[in-house]
Amino acid sequence: WLQRQLNDPYVEAGSREGYRSRAAFKLAEMDDRFRVLQKGSKVIDLGAAPGGWTQVIVEATGAKNRSTGARVVAVDIQPMDPVEGAQIMTLDFLGDGAAEAIMAQLGGEADAVLSDMAPAMTGHAKTDHLRIMAMAEAAFEFVEEGLAPGGVFIAKVLQGGAEEALLAKMKQRFATVR
User: Fold this and answer.
1) Which has the closest alpha carbon to 102: 51, 47, 65, 59?
2) Are 138 and 118 spatial neighbours (Cβ–Cβ below 8 Å)?
């Protein structure tokens, strides 16, 4: 793992460009391709630590500039260093009252909910698949209550068979699923 990290061009580029994680490039690429993050949007970043996605969201929405109306709420169960332009909440988004607290911090429904959540990997592909799918399904349940009509939902999943049920639910809720 360490050797891969040391030789990974995204890790090096992330460090050079000030991103906290290589995952920032994944989100930036998705946004370039699908234009999911708009100036002035209200966005919730679930599983935000260490903050790479949050940094990209803040940049894309213009959340550093209060006059844009953009709001970014980054939520993680683990503590995270501040990101200028984002409100950081250290909590389990599945906990009692957490959804209400997140929505209150955001100030209304979200235009986008993004989830880069992943459990600690076991190395057993089927187990890891089921665990990450459980997190994606929990994020989707959160979206059912907190996402504005026409909003965007992005979640990390691992293919392995159990994603079909979630995809079917998403196709009922969203005009486009990719």
Assistant:
1) 47
2) no
Residue 1 has pLDDT above 50, yes or no: no
Residue 162 has a pLDDT of 87
- Rounded distance, CA 3 to CA 88, Å? 32
Q: Which of 26, 64, 156, 169 is catalytic?
A: 156
Per residue, the 3-state secondary structure of 62-126, as one string, reads CCCCHHHCCEEEEEECCCCCCCCCCEEEECCCCCCCHHHHHHHHHCCCEEEEEECCCCCCCCCHH
Is-catalytic flag, 156? yes
- Tell me if 154 sits within 8 A of 115, measured CB to CB: yes
pTM of the model: 0.90
**Residue 35: DSSP 8-state:** -
Nearest to 78 by CA among 100, 54, 57, 49: 49
Relative orientation angle of helices 23-34 and 52-61, to the nearest 10 degrees: 30
